[in-house]
Amino acid sequence: MLTTQTLSLLVQKLVKPCRLFRKQRRGAAAVEFAVVAPVFFLLVFGMIEYGRMVMVQQIITNAAREGCRVAVLDGSTTASTQTAAINAMASGNITITTSNVTVNPSPPSSAAYGSPVSVTVTVPFNQVSWLPSPMYLGGKSMTATTTMRRETVQ
């Protein structure tokens, strides 16, 4: 049976080499972090960028749909269609101009009954990114097109 004194001697003999081993590992955590950190930050910023891309794509799809809803009605104009799309984009805190909204045919009231009317909304991703300089999608444009049949009295 081990006495308390012999047990404490054994513990001291085991602890001393472990302490020496720990002293030799100084800075290991810093080196491991330096190796893993770039990959970690690339993944985090990639998730932020692609998440924002999905969010903006949904907003411009809704804007194209809202613009097309206005375009298929009687008496619609290109300006009213563009305004509807711009207002839908503003609800998502994205500012665009009329040059970002294309209506085909222009004016939409020139389309015959049942003819297709298309509204296309285009936004450069650099304009809507949350990152200062997008890493993966920089320079790309996001586009959404909606086509509906013209509603008018025959």
UniProtKB/TrEMBL annotation:
UniProt entry keywords in alphabetical sequence: Membrane, Transmembrane, Transmembrane helix
Pfam families from the UniProt entry: TadE
TadE-like domain span: 27-69
InterPro entries assigned to the protein according to its UniProt record, in alphabetical order: TadE-like_dom
Transmembrane segments: 29-48
Protein's recorded name: TadE-like protein
